[in-house]
Amino acid sequence: MAKIKHNNLLDTVVSVMTNAKESGAIHLYAEDEKFNGRQIQLHGEKLFHFGTTGYLGLEQDDRLKRGAIQAIEAYGTEFPLSKSYISHPLYAELECLMTKIYGNPVVITKNSTLGHMGVIPSVVDDGDGVILDHQVHWSLQSAVNPLKLRSVPVEMIRHNNLQMLEDKIKKLQSRCDKIWYMADGMYSMYGDYAPIEELMLLLNKYPQLHIYFDDVHGMSWKGKNGSGYVMSVLQQLPERVILFGTLSKTFGASGAVMVCSDKKIQQRVKNFGGPLTFSVQLEPASVGAAIASAKIHLSEEIYTMQEELAEKIAYFSKCLKQTELPLIVDNDSPVFYIGTGMPETGFNLVKRLMKAGFYVNIGFFPAVPVKNTGLRITISRLNQYSEIKRLCEALVVEFPKALKDTHTNLERVNFAFGRNTVRLSKTGTHQPNLSIDSYHSIKEIDPDLWNKTAGGHGFYDWNGLKALEKILKGNDTPEHNNQFFYYIIKDPNQKCILATFLSYGIWKEDMLAPRSVSVAIEKARQTDPYYHTSSCLSLGSMITEGDHLYLCQETPYWKEAFNLLLEQIELLEKKLKPQYIILRDFDTHNNAIKSFLHSKGFIQASMPQSAVYREFNWKDSTDYVSTLSKRSRKHFRKDIEAFKDKLQVQIKDNLSDSELKKSYELYLAVKENNLGLNTFTYPFSLFLHMNTSSQWEFVMIYAKENQDQLIGVMFCYKNSSNVYTPAVIGMDYQFSREYNIYRQLLYQTIMRAKELGSKRIDFGLTAGFEKRKVGAQIIDRCCYIQTRDNFALEALEFLRKD
């Protein structure tokens, strides 16, 4: 019945990246006729290049260039044959050199992405389990996904959270032969490291544990023979550790390399490693360049290069420490992340730096949480000290300007990254055109003002919220306790242009997830009721549905008003520390809102469709049917009219204790069978209130053939603005198909609303297909989300049954 349109993460990513592209921060084209590693030309201007992942600048080394050219001249542009048949002549030399670098058996792969796709399914058996660090590189996460089809359990932990890792190990050790933990050695966005020494302690403690490191960003600039960050810590590769390095990025060529101390694993992967078997091998030029680079790695020169880079890293770090710029991680890696908070601030700063003569990367969702946008600045051995100093000076000048342009400040940026506890200014950054009033109870707001603005929908008019505040307070279970916050913003003429309310409480993280995810999670909740639940600050509440934000977009002040609201939400965030902020129930096609909230650090997520009925220009049921489409009229006669004589319909203002109990049981039956919108069960006190409030009534359907047994009920609210709201439904599934109870309830709701002279029915979310059949208008809905990190979003993705 209530099938939710899945919130496809890819759609969200595409939408966010489209904004980044339109801002001029990504998908650019270099215009250089020749590269020197220090500069890159964009839009006709030469910029100093601080966005490379070639940290040692080996891609510009003449020896690598000659190696590539000579290989092409000797063997052509490619060797179009799988390595399973024949490797071209240079491969043997490269494999020998890479074995010397690592001191262990290796397998050369086309790139790290194809390498993970080949290695992971080969080494992870059906009886194994996998645990991922939630910031591990996308290529590795993608390679793990197919394991779910083999029923391999896949878990995820928060970034570098060793306690959570050990808990997951304990959870899996009784049902898994081997447990694979997968992480990066050095993480590509913030430049931070895996806690390798601590992980080795866990490796020794748990014999089932195996560790799979992706160390492509730690390669070459660190470690003996440039073997990478992981090897710089380990020195010797343990038997139960698999390591991935790269022949591209800092290595200067192309390809990737798997390393392990177990010869059997190496041969297993080499003999049949999926893409490693069927893909065309590395081009001769790549192998020729890699051989030249490997020889440098095996010489003393690599240590001179590492030291030169280390000195420039230390110099940039020293320069930054003399500023107030928000450096997110301070270590000795060549990656520096300067936080900007909101995406629009990051985009603005990137463009400013381009005008000042510098190119840097933008870090944004999904690589980082959307409100943790920032500049990813990388230092290369080829960068000169004078350029590094000038970049720092440009940042000091341009960073405050970008903050001012985007109506934010350093305190808000620091808060977004959890860097300190600086009190946020209550005056905010908006212009003094508007006034804002905040309240903790609807009782403090003029009822007429509220009902004419935000309260004209659903059951959250003034009276409804007054009751809801009482119902969601003082309960034994945390999910049934909410805090409420109200905001009214007026223009210079004291006209209300924004009105809304927010609530704070516990939500299920899978509320908008596919049904298959909720089914799996609900099994775990039988023993752990609050598994995958989080604190949430949301427009509206968990119980209400509809347009929770009244915003007059016709006024020139609407963005300023929305900015002012977001500042107030940020103050609440500082106080309450919710995992999620959700601005919900927006029209998906409101592109102005979409663009505005994307720039403010919110990502769009799909919600179930909502439905509204307005067409009351008919006299009776026969006339009503004539307003339906030809197809819907057919459905009406077959699925609704055909059962009218078998059913009895009653409208009741009050129910007996037994009737209310039965109605609540029918609601629970719908709740248990409908995981398309998975929320906590509503408290029984809500239904007790319905039974005493003059604004609530019950549309009851009985089966005549079963001694007038109650088989369906619609709990309906009569809004003060003459809007009828069927807010909750209950059905007996034993009879639901036999009598098409759901469609009967929809039809009877329309008949009752007509009888009351209602101007509109707010049918709420889900089941848009069914509501369209009875003449309702369907509206695509979405919400906008901010999270403290991406962990919950990514963890739920791995629970999907693809």
UniProtKB/TrEMBL annotation:
Domain BioF2-like acetyltransferase, by residue range, is 631-765
Transmembrane region(s):
none
- Which UniProt keywords are listed? Aminotransferase, Transferase
Q: Which coenzymes or cofactors are required?
A: pyridoxal 5'-phosphate
Keyword Cytoplasm belongs to the record: no
Matching InterPro entries: Acyl_CoA_acyltransferase, Aminotransferase_I/II_large, AON_synthase_class-II, BioF2-like_GNAT_dom, PyrdxlP-dep_Trfase, PyrdxlP-dep_Trfase_major, PyrdxlP-dep_Trfase_small
Which GO terms of the molecular function aspect are on file?
transaminase activity
Which superkingdom does the taxonomy of this entry point to?
Answer: Bacteria
Q: What are the Aminotransferase class I/classII large domain coordinates in residue numbering?
A: 50-395
Q: What is this protein called?
A: Aminotransferase class I/II-fold pyridoxal phosphate-dependent enzyme
Species of origin: Autumnicola musiva
